Amino acid sequence: AEHARMNAAKLGLVEWRGDEDAQLFSALLELIEHAEVDMTIFFRELANVDVHSPSTTPLAAAFYDPAKRERTDADISAWLTRWAARTAGQSEADGERRQRMDSANPKYVLRNWLAQEAIDAATGGDTAPLHTLIEVLRRPCETQPGREHFAQRRPEWARHKPGCSMLSCSS
Q1: Is residue 151 within 8 Å of residue 145, measured between CB atoms?
Q2: Which of 11, 98, 108, 135 has the fewest CB atoms within 10 Å of its CB?
């Protein structure tokens, strides 16, 4: 029941309608995987999709590969249309949906590459990045001006670095 409640909040749904919503959520996870999408950014930006005129434009920052985005755009647009119809049928203001989604979808998460940056700095004697990271993570769902770095996709340098994008034995 708690899992269903959490997934409903991530999608901006007031209530979970069992198999119907489970299928909607499952279809999204499959699309996200095929499109090589940053899930944290995708779910956070989903709140900014206009349910009256759904578009993938607000989700652009979540995609790692422009070619995959282009190839999956029609499928993601179709999913957004289904999601928008499901969401628009709720009797609430759009701002309430967005607020619920922002509360359920953090903007800042402890990403391996962010931890690695803090570790590298601390190893060099500078613990300020570690303290800043901890401060940002204390309020993961609040937008924190000037802290955009902590809400970005994985940088290319971290794509194949053990411990940053793929786990190493010591992770």
Answers
A1: no
A2: 135
Spatial contact of 11 and 46, defined as CB atoms under 8 Å apart? yes
Cβ proximity of 79 and 28 under 8 Å: yes
Can you say whether residue 39 is alpha, beta or left, with left for phi > 0 and alpha for psi between -120 and 50 degrees? alpha
pLDDT in tens, the chain (171 residues): 999 999 999 999 999 999 999 999 999 999 999 999 999 999 999 999 999 999 999 999 999 999 999 999 999 999 999 999 998 877 677 788 899 999 999 999 999 999 999 999 999 999 999 999 999 999 999 999 999 999 999 888 888 777 666 544 444
What is the pTM (predicted TM-score) of this model? 0.89
The vertex-96 CA angle with 94 and 101, nearest 5°, equals 95
